[in-house]
């Protein structure tokens, strides 16, 4: 009996010692992560997002649509209000619009196209700004040696397609090309960036190039005619002014029987034979998901690198190909042109 009692006492002592030396539960293990905590805090919050779109155009319209649908899907239609405004192609209007958005203290600004991003960048250092339909942010914002992350209150998505591939398209479609005119608006820094890259590529292929820049729509038609007089083929980059006047450029190029290789699908639909283009709806949707990360999840925009479209698609304009007697190349999809 004494032996049994002794064994019981030893067991109790050992149990007590184990209880004293056991590690306490880690309180962090049961606490929510930073993202989960932020989501919980913003679950009932309502947001106002300001949208400044530079010009009404199918490509930019699709980017805005994708952005709004992504944000609405993730945050809920009852949790977000959009203050959407269009600058009608005037850079000065972008400044007026974004200054108004800043004054109304929106939670985030989505700036669609380069002039809108530049205006927003100059208007506020506090409100998060997400750009879309911007080709190269270093050129757009005057940042030298741009590394891919702005580092301030700006991030977003780029519509930059592979410029070497676009330049090679000229030679693939028109192998006998000897002279290429590069037609663009001199007021758009991103356009200059693109034509410089294309010119460098074609120079390596022993193709002569010449820049044909116009300041605005007042001299655009005369410059377009000069480009047709000079070139075998015309290249137009992703350029908002060109996009807004693509049908006018087409009237000159088609009459002159000069084909145009375009930087994106919207321009191609108006005046181009073919393009290697991104999908602007997808681009806008990706921008919307970045907005969700900032507003709902608490992501730090200063550390968010610029994102790019998930894919590029080779497209041809059936109507213009027929008008110029050009046979579409294999591997190109027919472009759905809005009438």
Please sum up the structure shown.
By secondary structure, the chain is an alpha/beta fold.
List its traits.
Rossmann fold; 15 helices; six-stranded parallel sheet; seven-stranded mixed sheet; single chain; 2 domains; 19% strand; 339 residues; alpha/beta; disordered N terminus
Tell me what you see in this structure:
The protein is an alpha/beta fold. The protein folds into 2 domains: 46-159 and 279-308, Rossmann fold (3-Layer(aba) Sandwich); 163-277 and 313-334, 3-Layer(aba) Sandwich (Rossmann fold), CATH 3.40.50.2300. It has 15 helices and 13 strands. Helix 4 (58-75) packs parallel to helix 14, helix 8 packs across helix 9 (189-204) and helix 12 crosses helix 13 (265-271). The longest helix has 20 residues, at 2-21.
The level 1 CATH classification of the largest domain is Alpha Beta
Apparent shape? elongated
Work out the oligomeric state of the chains in this entry: single chain
Q: H/E order of the elements?
A: HHHEHEHEHEHEHEHEHEHHEHEHEEHE
Radius of gyration: 28 Å
Counting DSSP E segments of at least 2 residues, the number of strands comes to 13
SS-based class? alpha/beta
Number of helices: 15
Largest sheet: 7 strands, mixed
At CATH level 2, the architecture of the largest domain is 3-Layer(aba) Sandwich
List the helices and strands and how they pair.
Blueprint: H1 2-21, H2 27-30, H3 34-42, E1 47-53, H4 58-75, E2 80-86, H5 91-103, E3 108-112, H6 114-123, E4 129-134, H7 137-141, E5 154-158, H8 163-173, E6 179-185, H9 189-204, E7 208-214, H10 217-230, E8 233-236, H11 240-244, H12 246-255, E9 260-262, H13 265-271, E10 274-277, H14 280-295, E11 307-308, E12 313-316, H15 318-324, E13 333-334
